[in-house]
Amino acid sequence: MTTHYIDITVKPDPESSAAQLLGALYDKLHLALVQYGLNDIGVSFPGYSMNPRNLGTALRLHGTDHALRQLTQADWLKGVRDHVRVTDITEVPDGASHRTVRRKQFKTSAERLRRRRMRRKGETAEQAARAIPSSIERQPNLPYVHVRSQSTGQPFCLFVTLGAPAADATPGKFNGYGLSETTTIPWF
């Protein structure tokens, strides 16, 4: 159950945008969560906005006091510490609603899907084009953060969507990005 939180806010920087710094911060968090096997820490973005589409400048970490202390003792902020402001571990306010914060994946490139199909099924470009029309492409309309996969090293956009607010928490585990389809975090 997530009873405490830490806010980490990126500081304005003339050489890097807030989005770039948030991406670097999130990469560091992902690495720490995977490296230390922490599946009891969730994330949210207090500045999440659909109009304009933005995650804001803060990353909020949710967990128990013990889990957050374990993470902070790991010194995972090395390399970005000068670019962020970190609050102390604080109790979640009484009466906070809860919601899921999860990843949403999109089929954004028909060309990429065609190349994949050609490799997997041994089809020609023409056969793959007939099987995968350009109309399948979807334009994502969610806020996102640029991250790099720790397993493949490939950069990608991690699109973030919010579940509906709920009065009660749903306990469970979080993935290596601090996200979950079912486990909720306090939303305030």
SSE blueprint:
Elements: E1 4-10, H1 18-35, E2 42-44, E3 49-50, E4 53-54, E5 58-63, H2 65-72, E6 84-86, E7 90-91, E8 97-99, E9 101-104, H3 110-121, H4 125-131, E10 144-148, E11 155-162, E12 185-187
Antiparallel strand pairs: 1-5, 1-6, 1-7, 2-5, 3-4, 8-12, 9-11, 10-11
Helix pairs in contact: 3-4
Describe the structure.
- The chain is built from four helices and twelve strands, in the order βαββββαββββααβββ.
- 24% of the residues lie in helices and 26% in strands.
- The chain has 188 residues and is an alpha+beta fold.
- It has one domain (4-105, 139-187): Alpha-Beta Plaits.
- Strands 1, 2, 5, 6 and 7 form a five-stranded antiparallel sheet that branches. Strands 9-11-10 form a three-stranded antiparallel sheet, covered by helices on one side.
Spans with pLDDT under 50 lasting ≥5 residues? Answer: none
Shape type = globular
Main sheet? 5 strands, antiparallel
CATH topology: Alpha-Beta Plaits
Summarize the structure.
The chain has helices at 18-35, 65-72, 110-121, 125-131, and strands spanning 4-10, 42-44, 49-50, 53-54, 58-63, 84-86, 90-91, 97-99, 101-104, 144-148, 155-162, 185-187.
Considering the chains and any ligands shown, give keywords for the structure.
globular; 24% helix; five-stranded antiparallel sheet; Alpha-Beta Plaits; 188 residues; alpha+beta; 12 strands
